[in-house]
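Practice problem 4.
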């Protein structure tokens, strides 16, 4: 059976995902893999336009609308980009995927988790990452790293919200082998080494 080369990165805002994704991309390319990186919401024209709406501080968006916008962006990204890339045997690295909706809209905004799971399966055609790196930081580190003057609509959701989101991630990742939980308060080098060790297991090295 062919195993999808599909990796996702998860964690609360300011957990350092982008830095680690760039390092991993480079290491995989050095091994001659084709690597495509996407961010969620976004990654292609329609989804990037949806992202602009979701993150716009001028909009007051209901939780139902917010969830459906994230899911719409995902539907389009999977259909137009991720599925074809996986069929082409490329490595796909996604900065956030289904688990962000569970953590943010489920645990954060208190939308029913079963509903989110069902809708996630629908929009992804049941495609799941093979490995998901959960970069865990606590709220005090998030506070230190953020600049509240440039926060987007989601980042302005408040301390209680992010506490629930982080607890959501801890809960989701606890009982699923797909996840690798990483202490993202460590140095960039330490974290990237830990990720690479896991990738070597994944690649059968
Ligand atoms: P980013 O800043 O990591 O690109 O993500 C955009 C924001 O959207 C971030 O605050 C997390 C949030 N988000 C959700 O609330 N639900 C989702 O399903 C996704 C993909 C992101």
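Answer key:
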């Amino acid at each position: 059976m062919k195993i999808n080369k599909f990796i996702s990165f998860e964690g609360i805002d300011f957990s350092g995902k982008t830095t680690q994704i760039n390092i991993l991309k480079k290491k995989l390319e050095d091994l001659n893999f084709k690597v495509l990186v996407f961010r969620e919401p976004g990654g292609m024209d329609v989804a990037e336009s949806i992202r602009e709406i979701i993150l716009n501080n001028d909009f007051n968006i209901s939780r139902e609308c917010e969830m459906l916008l994230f899911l719409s962006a995902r539907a389009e990204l999977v259909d137009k980009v991720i599925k074809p890339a996986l069929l082409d045997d490329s490595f796909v690295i996604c900065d956030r995927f289904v688990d962000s909706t569970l953590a943010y809209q489920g645990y954060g905004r208190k939308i029913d988790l079963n509903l989110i799971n069902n809708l996630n399966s629908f929009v992804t055609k049941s495609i799941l990452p093979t490995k998901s790196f959960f970069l865990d930081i606590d709220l005090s580190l998030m506070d230190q790293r953020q600049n509240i003057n440039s926060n987007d609509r989601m980042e302005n959701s408040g301390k209680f919200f992010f506490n629930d989101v982080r607890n959501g991630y801890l809960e989701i990742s606890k009982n699923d082998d797909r996840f690798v939980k990483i202490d993202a308060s460590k140095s960039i080098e330490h974290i990237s080494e830990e990720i690479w060790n896991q990738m070597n297991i994944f690649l059968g090295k």
